[in-house]
Amino acid sequence: MLSPQDQLTELVRTLETQQHVFAxxxxxxxxxxxxxDGKPIQKLHRRASRIDSNxxxxxxxxxxxxxxxxxxxxxxxxxxxxxxxGLFTLLQTNVVNFFYVLVCLLGFHTIxxxxxxxxxxxxxxxxxxxxxxxxxxxxxxxxxxxxxxxAAVDLYERQLQHSGMRWYLGRFSHQxxxxxxxxxxxxxxxxxxxxxxxxxxxxxxxxxxxLITLTQLLGWLPSMVGFDVPDSTxxxxxxxxxxxxxxxxxxxxxxxxxxxxxxxGIVPRAIAWAFCALMFRRKKMRLDIxxxxxxxxxxxxxxxxVDADDFNNEASVPIAPKAQVSAGKKLVALLEYxxxxxxxxxxxxxxxxxxxxxIENFGIIDDRDDMARLKKYLDDHPVQVLLxxxxxxxxxxxxxxxxxxxxxxxxxxxxxxxxSDSSALELTKQVANHQDVRYQQWQTALSARKxxxxxxxx
Length: 458
Known about the structure:
This protein is of the alpha/beta class.
Protein backbone atom coordinates (compact mmCIF):
# COMPACT_ATOMS: atom_id res chain seq x y z
CA MET A 1 0.00 0.00 0.00
CA LEU A 2 1.08 3.56 -0.63
CA SER A 3 1.37 5.85 2.35
CA PRO A 4 -1.64 8.15 2.91
CA GLN A 5 0.29 11.13 1.50
CA ASP A 6 1.36 9.14 -1.57
CA GLN A 7 -2.22 7.97 -2.07
CA LEU A 8 -3.52 11.53 -2.03
CA THR A 9 -0.79 12.66 -4.43
CA GLU A 10 -1.52 9.82 -6.85
CA LEU A 11 -5.28 10.44 -6.62
CA VAL A 12 -4.71 14.10 -7.55
CA ARG A 13 -2.67 12.96 -10.56
CA THR A 14 -5.41 10.57 -11.69
CA LEU A 15 -8.15 13.15 -11.34
CA GLU A 16 -6.16 15.92 -12.98
CA THR A 17 -5.54 13.77 -16.05
CA GLN A 18 -9.34 13.28 -16.17
CA GLN A 19 -9.92 17.06 -16.16
CA HIS A 20 -11.52 17.00 -12.70
CA VAL A 21 -12.43 20.35 -11.13
CA PHE A 22 -10.70 20.61 -7.73
CA ALA A 23 -11.49 22.84 -4.79
CA UNK A 24 -8.31 24.81 -5.59
CA UNK A 25 -6.73 25.42 -8.98
CA UNK A 26 -3.74 23.01 -9.37
CA UNK A 27 -1.90 25.45 -11.66
CA UNK A 28 -2.06 28.20 -9.04
CA UNK A 29 -0.78 25.87 -6.32
CA UNK A 30 2.04 24.63 -8.58
CA UNK A 31 3.19 28.18 -9.30
CA UNK A 32 3.12 29.16 -5.62
CA UNK A 33 5.21 26.13 -4.65
CA UNK A 34 7.93 27.05 -7.15
CA UNK A 35 9.64 29.35 -4.68
CA UNK A 36 9.29 27.09 -1.63
CA ASP A 37 12.04 24.84 -0.30
CA GLY A 38 11.79 21.11 0.19
CA LYS A 39 12.55 17.77 -1.39
CA PRO A 40 10.61 16.93 -4.58
CA ILE A 41 8.46 14.28 -2.88
CA GLN A 42 7.70 16.65 0.01
CA LYS A 43 6.62 19.42 -2.37
CA LEU A 44 4.43 17.00 -4.31
CA HIS A 45 2.75 15.94 -1.05
CA ARG A 46 2.30 19.59 -0.12
CA ARG A 47 0.84 20.35 -3.53
CA ALA A 48 -1.72 17.53 -3.29
CA SER A 49 -2.81 18.61 0.21
CA ARG A 50 -3.34 22.20 -0.90
CA ILE A 51 -5.24 21.18 -4.02
CA ASP A 52 -7.52 19.11 -1.77
CA SER A 53 -8.21 22.18 0.38
CA ASN A 54 -11.69 21.00 1.40
CA UNK A 55 -10.47 17.50 2.34
CA UNK A 56 -12.87 15.71 -0.01
CA UNK A 57 -10.22 13.44 -1.55
CA UNK A 58 -8.68 12.58 1.81
CA UNK A 59 -12.12 11.68 3.22
CA UNK A 60 -12.85 9.24 0.39
CA UNK A 61 -9.42 7.60 0.74
CA UNK A 62 -9.85 7.41 4.52
CA UNK A 63 -13.29 5.84 4.15
CA UNK A 64 -11.98 3.08 1.87
CA UNK A 65 -8.94 2.44 4.08
CA UNK A 66 -11.11 2.36 7.21
CA UNK A 67 -13.54 -0.14 5.72
CA UNK A 68 -10.76 -2.47 4.57
CA UNK A 69 -9.12 -2.40 8.00
CA UNK A 70 -12.54 -2.74 9.65
CA UNK A 71 -13.26 -5.85 7.61
CA UNK A 72 -9.91 -7.32 8.69
CA UNK A 73 -10.67 -6.60 12.35
CA UNK A 74 -14.12 -8.21 12.08
CA UNK A 75 -12.63 -11.31 10.46
CA UNK A 76 -9.97 -11.54 13.18
CA UNK A 77 -12.63 -11.35 15.90
CA UNK A 78 -14.70 -14.05 14.19
CA UNK A 79 -11.66 -16.33 13.89
CA UNK A 80 -10.86 -15.77 17.56
CA UNK A 81 -14.42 -16.69 18.55
CA UNK A 82 -14.30 -19.77 16.33
CA UNK A 83 -11.11 -20.93 18.05
CA UNK A 84 -12.60 -20.32 21.48
CA UNK A 85 -15.87 -22.12 20.72
CA GLY A 86 -14.12 -25.00 18.92
CA LEU A 87 -11.87 -25.79 21.85
CA PHE A 88 -14.66 -25.18 24.35
CA THR A 89 -16.68 -27.85 22.57
CA LEU A 90 -13.71 -30.21 22.43
CA LEU A 91 -13.03 -30.10 26.18
CA GLN A 92 -16.48 -31.03 27.47
CA THR A 93 -15.39 -34.28 29.13
CA ASN A 94 -13.44 -34.39 32.40
CA VAL A 95 -10.99 -37.01 31.08
CA VAL A 96 -9.32 -36.02 27.82
CA ASN A 97 -6.82 -37.76 25.59
CA PHE A 98 -3.82 -35.44 25.64
CA PHE A 99 -2.41 -36.29 22.22
CA TYR A 100 -5.83 -36.17 20.58
CA VAL A 101 -6.44 -32.66 21.94
CA LEU A 102 -2.91 -31.58 20.93
CA VAL A 103 -3.38 -32.78 17.36
CA CYS A 104 -6.71 -30.97 17.17
CA LEU A 105 -4.99 -27.82 18.43
CA LEU A 106 -1.83 -27.81 16.34
CA GLY A 107 -2.11 -30.49 13.65
CA PHE A 108 -3.75 -28.55 10.81
CA HIS A 109 -2.04 -25.33 11.93
CA THR A 110 1.41 -26.91 11.68
CA ILE A 111 0.69 -28.37 8.23
CA UNK A 112 -0.50 -24.97 6.95
CA UNK A 113 2.51 -23.16 8.44
CA UNK A 114 4.97 -25.61 6.85
CA UNK A 115 3.08 -25.36 3.55
CA UNK A 116 3.32 -21.56 3.65
CA UNK A 117 7.05 -21.78 4.36
CA UNK A 118 7.64 -24.18 1.44
CA UNK A 119 5.58 -22.08 -1.00
CA UNK A 120 7.40 -18.93 0.11
CA UNK A 121 10.75 -20.53 -0.75
CA UNK A 122 9.50 -21.96 -4.05
CA UNK A 123 7.76 -18.75 -5.19
CA UNK A 124 10.59 -16.47 -4.13
CA UNK A 125 10.69 -13.52 -6.54
CA UNK A 126 7.51 -14.61 -8.34
CA UNK A 127 4.10 -12.99 -8.46
CA UNK A 128 1.58 -15.02 -6.45
CA UNK A 129 -2.15 -15.07 -7.06
CA UNK A 130 -3.87 -12.53 -4.87
CA UNK A 131 -7.36 -13.70 -3.91
CA UNK A 132 -7.30 -11.15 -1.11
CA UNK A 133 -7.45 -8.34 -3.71
CA UNK A 134 -10.68 -9.81 -5.07
CA UNK A 135 -12.10 -10.53 -1.63
CA UNK A 136 -11.66 -7.01 -0.22
CA UNK A 137 -12.14 -5.13 -3.48
CA UNK A 138 -13.03 -1.51 -2.60
CA UNK A 139 -15.84 -1.65 -5.18
CA UNK A 140 -17.66 -3.98 -2.75
CA UNK A 141 -17.03 -1.78 0.26
CA UNK A 142 -17.97 1.67 -0.99
CA UNK A 143 -20.66 2.87 -3.32
CA UNK A 144 -20.46 6.02 -5.39
CA UNK A 145 -20.52 7.02 -9.03
CA UNK A 146 -18.78 10.39 -8.73
CA UNK A 147 -15.34 10.92 -10.24
CA UNK A 148 -13.53 11.03 -6.90
CA UNK A 149 -14.95 7.73 -5.64
CA UNK A 150 -14.30 5.94 -8.94
CA ALA A 151 -10.72 7.19 -9.09
CA ALA A 152 -10.10 6.27 -5.43
CA VAL A 153 -11.49 2.75 -5.93
CA ASP A 154 -9.31 2.31 -9.02
CA LEU A 155 -6.27 3.53 -7.07
CA TYR A 156 -6.85 0.99 -4.27
CA GLU A 157 -7.40 -1.86 -6.70
CA ARG A 158 -4.11 -1.04 -8.44
CA GLN A 159 -2.37 -1.11 -5.07
CA LEU A 160 -3.91 -4.48 -4.19
CA GLN A 161 -2.49 -5.93 -7.42
CA HIS A 162 1.05 -4.78 -6.58
CA SER A 163 3.68 -7.53 -6.26
CA GLY A 164 4.45 -6.56 -2.66
CA MET A 165 0.88 -7.41 -1.67
CA ARG A 166 1.83 -11.09 -1.37
CA TRP A 167 3.47 -10.15 1.95
CA TYR A 168 0.44 -8.11 2.96
CA LEU A 169 -1.71 -11.16 2.26
CA GLY A 170 0.69 -13.38 4.21
CA ARG A 171 0.61 -11.03 7.16
CA PHE A 172 -3.19 -11.02 7.17
CA SER A 173 -3.33 -14.83 6.90
CA HIS A 174 -0.98 -15.19 9.88
CA GLN A 175 -3.09 -12.63 11.75
CA UNK A 176 -6.17 -14.82 11.33
CA UNK A 177 -4.26 -17.87 12.55
CA UNK A 178 -2.99 -15.91 15.56
CA UNK A 179 -6.56 -14.86 16.32
CA UNK A 180 -7.69 -18.51 16.17
CA UNK A 181 -4.84 -19.73 18.39
CA UNK A 182 -5.46 -16.89 20.82
CA UNK A 183 -9.11 -17.91 21.06
CA UNK A 184 -8.02 -21.49 21.80
CA UNK A 185 -5.57 -20.29 24.44
CA UNK A 186 -8.26 -18.23 26.16
CA UNK A 187 -10.63 -21.23 26.11
CA UNK A 188 -7.99 -23.52 27.63
CA UNK A 189 -7.11 -21.08 30.39
CA UNK A 190 -10.79 -20.45 31.15
CA UNK A 191 -11.67 -24.17 31.29
CA UNK A 192 -8.60 -25.05 33.38
CA UNK A 193 -9.62 -22.38 35.88
CA UNK A 194 -13.23 -23.52 36.32
CA UNK A 195 -12.89 -27.33 35.81
CA UNK A 196 -10.55 -30.09 36.90
CA UNK A 197 -9.37 -32.34 34.07
CA UNK A 198 -7.62 -35.68 33.97
CA UNK A 199 -5.25 -36.33 31.06
CA UNK A 200 -4.59 -39.76 29.59
CA UNK A 201 -2.78 -41.19 26.60
CA UNK A 202 -3.06 -44.42 24.62
CA UNK A 203 -2.12 -45.81 21.21
CA UNK A 204 -2.74 -48.90 19.11
CA UNK A 205 0.29 -48.66 16.80
CA UNK A 206 2.91 -46.88 18.92
CA UNK A 207 4.61 -48.55 21.88
CA UNK A 208 4.41 -47.13 25.37
CA UNK A 209 8.12 -46.22 25.31
CA UNK A 210 7.67 -44.35 22.03
CA LEU A 211 4.88 -42.22 23.48
CA ILE A 212 6.88 -41.60 26.66
CA THR A 213 9.86 -40.43 24.58
CA LEU A 214 7.59 -38.27 22.41
CA THR A 215 6.10 -36.62 25.50
CA GLN A 216 9.53 -35.83 26.91
CA LEU A 217 10.69 -34.33 23.60
CA LEU A 218 7.50 -32.31 23.34
CA GLY A 219 8.01 -30.94 26.84
CA TRP A 220 11.62 -29.80 26.28
CA LEU A 221 10.85 -26.39 24.78
CA PRO A 222 7.97 -25.46 27.13
CA SER A 223 10.12 -26.45 30.12
CA MET A 224 12.83 -24.06 28.88
CA VAL A 225 10.48 -21.10 29.41
CA GLY A 226 9.17 -22.22 32.82
CA PHE A 227 6.14 -24.44 32.13
CA ASP A 228 5.60 -27.52 34.30
CA VAL A 229 5.78 -30.71 32.20
CA PRO A 230 5.12 -34.36 33.21
CA ASP A 231 8.08 -36.33 34.45
CA SER A 232 8.58 -40.02 33.67
CA THR A 233 6.51 -41.17 36.66
CA UNK A 234 3.58 -38.89 35.73
CA UNK A 235 3.69 -40.08 32.13
CA UNK A 236 3.48 -43.74 33.17
CA UNK A 237 0.63 -43.03 35.64
CA UNK A 238 -1.41 -41.27 32.97
CA UNK A 239 -1.78 -44.21 30.61
CA UNK A 240 -5.46 -45.18 30.12
CA UNK A 241 -6.71 -42.97 32.97
CA UNK A 242 -10.50 -43.05 33.31
CA UNK A 243 -11.11 -41.29 36.63
CA UNK A 244 -9.77 -38.28 38.47
CA UNK A 245 -5.96 -38.16 38.70
CA UNK A 246 -3.75 -36.45 41.32
CA UNK A 247 -3.98 -32.66 40.99
CA UNK A 248 -0.18 -32.23 40.77
CA UNK A 249 0.00 -34.60 37.78
CA UNK A 250 -2.97 -32.92 36.07
CA UNK A 251 -1.27 -29.54 36.43
CA UNK A 252 1.86 -30.90 34.77
CA UNK A 253 -0.16 -32.09 31.77
CA UNK A 254 -2.06 -28.78 31.69
CA UNK A 255 1.26 -26.89 31.69
CA UNK A 256 2.49 -29.01 28.79
CA UNK A 257 -0.74 -28.36 26.85
CA UNK A 258 -0.63 -24.59 27.35
CA UNK A 259 3.14 -24.47 26.75
CA UNK A 260 2.84 -26.48 23.54
CA UNK A 261 0.11 -24.17 22.24
CA UNK A 262 2.32 -21.15 22.93
CA UNK A 263 5.71 -22.47 21.83
CA UNK A 264 4.64 -24.60 18.85
CA GLY A 265 1.62 -22.58 17.74
CA ILE A 266 1.50 -18.92 18.68
CA VAL A 267 5.23 -18.12 18.73
CA PRO A 268 6.07 -19.61 15.27
CA ARG A 269 2.99 -17.96 13.79
CA ALA A 270 3.95 -14.62 15.36
CA ILE A 271 7.45 -14.94 13.87
CA ALA A 272 5.94 -15.61 10.44
CA TRP A 273 3.65 -12.59 10.87
CA ALA A 274 6.61 -10.37 11.79
CA PHE A 275 8.60 -11.66 8.81
CA CYS A 276 5.76 -10.85 6.40
CA ALA A 277 5.35 -7.41 7.96
CA LEU A 278 9.07 -6.73 7.51
CA MET A 279 9.08 -7.94 3.90
CA PHE A 280 5.97 -5.91 3.11
CA ARG A 281 7.68 -2.83 4.48
CA ARG A 282 10.72 -3.48 2.30
CA LYS A 283 8.63 -4.19 -0.81
CA LYS A 284 6.15 -1.44 -0.07
CA MET A 285 4.75 0.42 -3.05
CA ARG A 286 6.40 3.78 -3.62
CA LEU A 287 5.20 6.82 -5.54
CA ASP A 288 6.76 6.79 -9.02
CA ILE A 289 7.84 10.40 -9.53
CA UNK A 290 9.49 9.45 -12.85
CA UNK A 291 6.11 9.51 -14.54
CA UNK A 292 5.79 12.32 -17.13
CA UNK A 293 3.10 14.02 -15.03
CA UNK A 294 5.41 14.43 -12.04
CA UNK A 295 8.48 15.18 -14.14
CA UNK A 296 6.67 18.06 -15.82
CA UNK A 297 5.88 19.60 -12.42
CA UNK A 298 9.40 19.07 -11.07
CA UNK A 299 10.97 20.59 -14.19
CA UNK A 300 8.73 23.62 -13.82
CA UNK A 301 9.86 24.10 -10.21
CA UNK A 302 13.52 23.86 -11.25
CA UNK A 303 13.24 26.75 -13.71
CA UNK A 304 13.26 29.35 -10.95
CA UNK A 305 17.07 29.35 -11.04
CA VAL A 306 17.30 31.07 -14.43
CA ASP A 307 14.48 33.58 -14.02
CA ALA A 308 15.25 34.86 -10.54
CA ASP A 309 16.18 38.33 -11.85
CA ASP A 310 13.10 38.78 -14.03
CA PHE A 311 11.12 40.17 -11.13
CA ASN A 312 13.67 42.80 -10.05
CA ASN A 313 13.68 45.76 -12.42
CA GLU A 314 16.42 47.60 -10.56
CA ALA A 315 18.86 44.69 -10.47
CA SER A 316 21.58 44.50 -13.08
CA VAL A 317 20.61 42.22 -15.94
CA PRO A 318 23.26 39.65 -16.96
CA ILE A 319 24.35 40.03 -20.58
CA ALA A 320 26.01 37.27 -22.59
CA PRO A 321 29.37 38.26 -24.13
CA LYS A 322 29.40 39.16 -27.80
CA ALA A 323 30.34 36.24 -30.01
CA GLN A 324 33.81 36.35 -31.54
CA VAL A 325 33.71 34.55 -34.88
CA SER A 326 37.05 32.98 -35.75
CA ALA A 327 38.48 32.62 -39.24
CA GLY A 328 38.83 28.86 -39.08
CA LYS A 329 36.46 26.05 -39.97
CA LYS A 330 32.99 26.11 -38.44
CA LEU A 331 30.57 23.44 -37.30
CA VAL A 332 26.93 24.46 -37.20
CA ALA A 333 24.22 22.50 -35.37
CA LEU A 334 20.70 22.99 -34.05
CA LEU A 335 19.90 22.16 -30.43
CA GLU A 336 16.75 19.99 -30.13
CA TYR A 337 14.49 22.09 -32.42
CA UNK A 338 14.56 22.40 -36.25
CA UNK A 339 14.82 25.75 -38.05
CA UNK A 340 12.52 27.08 -40.76
CA UNK A 341 15.53 28.49 -42.66
CA UNK A 342 17.80 26.18 -44.59
CA UNK A 343 20.93 28.30 -44.03
CA UNK A 344 20.05 29.85 -40.70
CA UNK A 345 23.71 30.46 -39.83
CA UNK A 346 24.35 32.88 -42.72
CA UNK A 347 23.07 35.85 -40.72
CA UNK A 348 25.38 35.07 -37.86
CA UNK A 349 28.68 34.33 -39.63
CA UNK A 350 30.94 36.57 -41.67
CA UNK A 351 29.93 36.85 -45.30
CA UNK A 352 33.42 36.02 -46.59
CA UNK A 353 33.29 32.44 -45.22
CA UNK A 354 33.11 29.79 -47.93
CA UNK A 355 29.85 27.94 -47.31
CA UNK A 356 31.03 24.78 -49.02
CA UNK A 357 34.45 24.26 -47.48
CA UNK A 358 34.38 26.15 -44.18
CA ILE A 359 31.00 24.97 -42.82
CA GLU A 360 30.21 21.52 -41.44
CA ASN A 361 26.42 21.21 -40.96
CA PHE A 362 25.77 18.69 -38.22
CA GLY A 363 21.97 18.92 -38.26
CA ILE A 364 19.88 18.63 -35.07
CA ILE A 365 21.42 17.54 -31.76
CA ASP A 366 18.75 15.94 -29.58
CA ASP A 367 19.28 12.49 -28.09
CA ARG A 368 22.30 10.73 -26.59
CA ASP A 369 23.40 9.23 -29.87
CA ASP A 370 23.55 12.69 -31.47
CA MET A 371 25.58 14.01 -28.54
CA ALA A 372 27.99 11.09 -28.67
CA ARG A 373 28.47 11.53 -32.43
CA LEU A 374 29.08 15.28 -32.03
CA LYS A 375 31.54 14.91 -29.16
CA LYS A 376 33.54 12.32 -31.08
CA TYR A 377 33.74 14.65 -34.09
CA LEU A 378 34.82 17.62 -31.94
CA ASP A 379 37.52 15.54 -30.25
CA ASP A 380 39.00 14.74 -33.68
CA HIS A 381 38.52 18.13 -35.43
CA PRO A 382 39.54 21.60 -34.19
CA VAL A 383 36.48 23.66 -35.16
CA GLN A 384 34.46 26.54 -33.77
CA VAL A 385 30.88 25.50 -33.04
CA LEU A 386 27.91 27.73 -33.88
CA LEU A 387 24.91 26.35 -32.05
CA UNK A 388 21.46 27.46 -33.16
CA UNK A 389 18.90 27.48 -30.33
CA UNK A 390 15.22 28.02 -31.04
CA UNK A 391 13.22 30.56 -29.06
CA UNK A 392 11.00 27.71 -27.84
CA UNK A 393 13.92 26.03 -26.07
CA UNK A 394 13.95 26.44 -22.30
CA UNK A 395 17.33 26.80 -20.54
CA UNK A 396 16.55 24.05 -18.06
CA UNK A 397 19.08 21.69 -16.52
CA UNK A 398 18.95 19.11 -19.28
CA UNK A 399 19.47 21.65 -22.05
CA UNK A 400 22.25 23.47 -20.21
CA UNK A 401 23.95 20.15 -19.51
CA UNK A 402 24.12 19.52 -23.27
CA UNK A 403 25.45 23.04 -23.79
CA UNK A 404 28.21 22.49 -21.24
CA UNK A 405 29.23 19.20 -22.86
CA UNK A 406 29.49 20.79 -26.30
CA UNK A 407 31.50 23.72 -24.91
CA UNK A 408 33.95 21.38 -23.18
CA UNK A 409 34.65 19.47 -26.43
CA UNK A 410 34.77 22.43 -28.87
CA UNK A 411 38.51 23.12 -29.21
CA UNK A 412 38.08 26.48 -31.00
CA UNK A 413 35.20 27.63 -28.81
CA UNK A 414 31.41 27.72 -28.85
CA UNK A 415 29.07 30.56 -29.84
CA UNK A 416 25.28 30.58 -29.76
CA UNK A 417 22.72 32.06 -32.15
CA UNK A 418 19.12 32.39 -30.91
CA UNK A 419 16.50 31.66 -33.58
CA SER A 420 12.88 32.86 -33.69
CA ASP A 421 9.72 31.92 -35.57
CA SER A 422 9.06 33.61 -38.90
CA SER A 423 5.57 34.31 -37.63
CA ALA A 424 6.85 36.30 -34.66
CA LEU A 425 5.32 39.52 -36.01
CA GLU A 426 1.86 38.00 -35.77
CA LEU A 427 2.22 37.10 -32.10
CA THR A 428 0.18 38.82 -29.47
CA LYS A 429 1.77 41.22 -27.04
CA GLN A 430 1.57 38.65 -24.24
CA VAL A 431 3.47 36.02 -26.25
CA ALA A 432 6.03 38.60 -27.36
CA ASN A 433 6.68 39.53 -23.73
CA HIS A 434 7.08 35.84 -22.95
CA GLN A 435 9.76 35.58 -25.68
CA ASP A 436 11.57 38.60 -24.21
CA VAL A 437 11.66 36.81 -20.85
CA ARG A 438 12.95 33.65 -22.52
CA TYR A 439 15.63 35.69 -24.34
CA GLN A 440 16.81 37.16 -21.05
CA GLN A 441 16.90 33.69 -19.52
CA TRP A 442 19.32 32.61 -22.23
CA GLN A 443 21.34 35.78 -21.71
CA THR A 444 21.68 34.85 -18.02
CA ALA A 445 22.65 31.24 -18.74
CA LEU A 446 25.21 32.16 -21.42
CA SER A 447 26.67 34.93 -19.30
CA ALA A 448 27.28 32.52 -16.43
CA ARG A 449 29.14 30.20 -18.81
CA LYS A 450 30.97 32.95 -20.72
CA UNK A 451 29.61 31.65 -24.03
CA UNK A 452 29.35 34.25 -26.78
CA UNK A 453 25.95 35.19 -28.26
CA UNK A 454 25.65 36.21 -31.91
CA UNK A 455 24.23 39.75 -32.11
CA UNK A 456 21.57 39.64 -34.83
CA UNK A 457 21.21 43.42 -34.88
CA UNK A 458 24.69 43.94 -36.30
